[in-house]
Hints:
By secondary structure, the protein is an alpha+beta fold. The protein has helices at 14-23, 36-41, 77-81, 84-89, 91-97, 103-108, 111-117, 123-130, 148-151, 226-233, 257-277, and strands at 7-10, 27-30, 49-52, 62-65, 68-72, 134-139, 142-147, 152-154, 157-158, 165-172, 178-185, 195-204, 207-216, 223-224. A hairpin with a 2-residue loop joins β6 and β7 (142-147). α5 packs antiparallel against α8 (123-130). The model has no long low-confidence stretch (mean pLDDT 97). The protein binds flavin-adenine dinucleotide. The site of flavin-adenine dinucleotide has 30 residues, from β2, α2, α7, α8 and β10.
Amino acid sequence: MIPAPFDYEVADTVEHAVALLGEREDAKLLAGGHSLIPLLRLRVARPMLLVDLGRVESLSYVRDAGDKIAIGALTRHHDVHTAPLLQEHCPLVSYTAGLIGDPQVRHRGTIGGSLAHGDPASDMPAILLALDGEVDIVGPDGVRTVTAADFFRGVFETAAGPHDVVTEIRVPKLTADHGWSYLKFRHRSQDWATVGAAVVAKRSNGGAAEAAISLVNMGATPLRATAAETALVAGEADPAAVAAEGTEPPSDTSGTADYRRHLARILVRRAVAEALAS
Ligand code: FAD
């Protein structure tokens, strides 16, 4: 379908983007366009103004930030996947970026767009949650920092409001005693995850002294599998048995809610084994 008519403005800076967004009732930011353009074409989204952030080159970077790695919101999935700093210090992020969509999607889609879109089927939100990452948001009142746990609010709903721009994402540097895994089940290669499971574990004596486990597509937002995390750290025989506790997965053409709960248990079991062995 052809999108409904809209005006188009190019933002020169983040502040310019915030000002343009504030000028019109129904304005939308455009980054890589790989989630927004399909919604426009289906007329699910009908903004009156598109504010193109794509030329703000200062938002595209991967930098060392002490005990964290800082990633500019406009960094494309391909550049996240191939960034040496991430490959060395937080390979869970670079590895996962390489699993998003196909090469065309990875060369256009951005990490900021992926997070701000708030799709519970997207990969990177669950990764940020497992890493306890944080997000900088610039709005009319200045900059604020939001933790991953507070960022995702509902389906297509995040802490970034209609006049806000996500500018930077920070993830911790993992140390040699951290193991990690991300496993994604999909019916066809290059599809979104029917279910995904991420594990970050601080290894100790064959088990885990600390663990974070997050799930993709098991509720309205990415979720932490807290019962499984507790069971893993307590050294229980099969922490994955409780991986679906507290989840509310959707039923759709990719699978029923029960099938997704089954997948979550299988993926967490395999991801825990991979994280502890890595
Ligand atoms: P856009 O489409 O430009 O914007 C998406 C939304 O976020 C809009 O509402 C926009 O206003 C808002 N936004 C964008 N940037 C910002 C910002 N900096 N601050 C505030 N708001 C912002 N994703 C996956 O995770 N896994 C997949 O397997 C996957 N497969 C895909 C396959 C296909 C065929 C396609 C088309 C997409 C796929 N995607 C997948 C989605 C892809 O990763 C998108 O690029 C991403 O979700 C959105 O990023 P974008 O830069 O394209 O954002």
